[in-house]
Amino acid sequence: MVDKDELPEDFQCSEEWITLGTHYRLLVEPLDIANYYRLGKNEDSGPYLKNGRPRRYTTLQKWLKEIEVTKQLQPSPTGIDQPTVLTQDSCLWAHVEEIACLMRPNNVRDQENLVAELENSVKALIGSNGLSMEELVAGNCNSTFNTVVKWLWTNMNAEKKASSPISYIIDRHPELIN
User: Which residues form the EDS1 EP domain (predicted)?
Assistant: First the structure.
């Protein structure tokens, strides 16, 4: 509809539509990310965030940022208008899946950049209370997220552990490293 210019002229300014679109993005994009990696598209096309993310998600995210800047609002992860999801960053799962790919044998990708991207995402989510840790780690001890956190923690040196946002997760859920 965007390409065919079928949307109302002020569509991207309508807070109601942006909120509904954000709900859609937060609920559906993690499923698209899981499917992308399940089908191995990252091996053919590259990382989801660079080559596989559909424009519908980037456009919705851009419009949300524009509204937040225009109205000088901060996203409220606990607000009534927020959907019930584990995280307010639908791209967190792409970072987790990329790290999971690093854990495979014979992988020679740039590990430090991917880890830094995940840490930055987790740090921002922790700072804005946009990450539901209890639900994220309590459910399945063998989840990809838990496996990645454990792998990162065991491969970090003591200095890195002290400054990493992963330490926040480990402090609250020490069972992940056992």
Answer: 1-157
